[in-house]
Amino acid sequence: MATAIVIGSGLGGLAAAVRLKHKGYQVTVFEQNDYAGGKLHAIEKDGYRFDLGPSLFTLPYLVDDLHALFPEHKIPFTYLKKEVGCHYFWEDGTIFHAFTDQKEFVDHAGDIFVESKRILNDYLVKSKSRYNLTKSLFLEKSLHKVSTYLSIDTIKALFNAPFLGLFNTLDQENQVFKNPKMTQLFNRYATYNGSSPYQTPGIMSMIPHLEIGIGTYYPHGGMHRISQSLYELAQEIGVEFRFRESVSQITHDNGNVTGITTKNGAFNADIVVSNMDVVPTYKNLLRNVKEPKKTLEQERSSSALIFYWGIDKEFPELDLHNILFSEDYPTEFEYIFEKKSLSNDPTVYINITSKETKTDAPQGCENWFVMINAPGDYGQNWEELIETARKNIIEKINKCLKTDVSNHIVTEYILDPRGIEKNTSSYRGALYGAASNDKFAAFLRHPNFNSQIKNLYHVGGSVHPGGGIPLCLLSAQITADLIPDA
Ligand code: FAD
């Protein structure tokens, strides 16, 4: 029987394992941790449950597609659609509830921000067209195969290049709005892939369509159900998992992959798929292979500093997703991407799953995931940065919610870029692999196949098409399409 080894059980690794099994391979996943899921993991602390990584779930059909490959295995995975995507707050008291229905969003935003409803609607229509025009080229196919460029979808996208906003920044694109708060709200979509709105190209204005259009979702039981349900499925269909077994080398002979090595010896396979970040894959597992320098030197995406707080009170003004905006957005991004530090006025994101899953916190309490965007780990003094950031975050929450939140924090766990790198091998703790601060970023990302070693493939957030749950799942789909049936 043809064999496949997957290095890492992050979302890309789990999805690749399921897809390869479906193609008839005997699949073994080697995972350095003692759990599956990588960044999509969860912890329990003092009666509170916290999703450790992703909190926003879009394009849920990509998870359904994997379960649908094996309809006879009924693994529970259900979700709800959010009517309101996010509650936004500013220090001057402005509060905005962002509906996921386009018409409702436009009506409400037009009223709150005294913004032209026609301009708002046109913006969202354009967002949708850009998404539909480019998704096939940038998200669903390998950018590194000639056949991609000969498809009708690609020709359509290239024909529409001037319309795609490739030659200005997202912030410039968002100057169509009169109210700076509206510009700031649409600028925040750059952080979907860990980029800066002042550098990332205007084409990123297609991202709002994901929320205000297709919609945002919440898996029953929390985000952890995404990785858990895929792990359960993989187990049921016979994928073998070897936990606490870090891969130290990818072996190859005459330009063909032969397998991997761990502390327990050598393991042969016909196919190897690496879900490890592509930078350490080359630096640690492929030491004798020429590095694709330009690709590995691409600027990394932002990382995050997260405080997981058990709160002994309920805040009815908050919802599942909440954003408390900085008063000075350009400076916040200058700190992250240029100074590699944290501004004193960060935008604070609060995710509260106990709003949907009551058992995630004791009665009358809430589980807060409080995150600010942060630079990757470049050896900064994190203890000092964390202490200052904690004070600044509390101050921002107090100003926006008119409270003293420090009196309500009953338990705390902290994750910073160093921890994210340690837990998942993500280079510098980047959340999304390479940043999209350059209009050529998509083309510089590592392909899903290895051009030097036949039958070696790459999946996950650090390779094509990029980071985030949907793109990691798509990376596994593109990879599986490149691999013949067993
Ligand atoms: P990873 O999760 O990076 O996992 C890689 C796996 O490989 C790990 O399990 C690691 O232990 C294993 N591994 C590495 N090296 C080896 C080795 N040598 N041997 C064996 N095993 C190895 N995305 C969204 O869509 N929405 C969000 O709201 C969102 N928010 C985020 C918030 C945070 C705090 C973080 C950290 C991420 C967030 N993301 C979000 C991004 C998303 O989590 C990632 O893009 C995605 O989960 C990455 O999946 P991956 O396939 O790249 O694998």
Task: Explain what this protein looks like in three dimensions.
This protein is α/β, with parallel strands linked by helices and 486 residues long. Among the domains are: 3-39 and 223-297 and 437-482, 3-Layer(bba) Sandwich (FAD/NAD(P)-binding domain), CATH 3.50.50.60; 101-214, no CATH class. It has 17 helices and 19 strands. It has helices at 11-22, 61-68, 102-113, 117-139, 146-149, 152-159, 170-173, 180-187, 208-214, 224-236, 278-285, 293-296, 329-338, 382-401, 417-424, 441-444, 469-482, and strands at 3-7, 26-30, 42-45, 48-51, 79-81, 84-89, 95-99, 217-219, 240-242, 247-253, 256-262, 265-268, 271-274, 303-311, 321-324, 348-352, 366-374, 409-415, 456-458. It has a 7-stranded mixed β-sheet. It has a 5-stranded parallel β-sheet with strand order 9-2-1-13-19, covered by helices on one side. A 3-stranded antiparallel β-sheet has the order 10-11-12, with no helix packed on it. Strand 10 (247-253) and strand 11 form a beta hairpin. The chain is globular. The site of flavin-adenine dinucleotide has 36 residues, from helix 1, strand 14, helix 15 and helix 17.
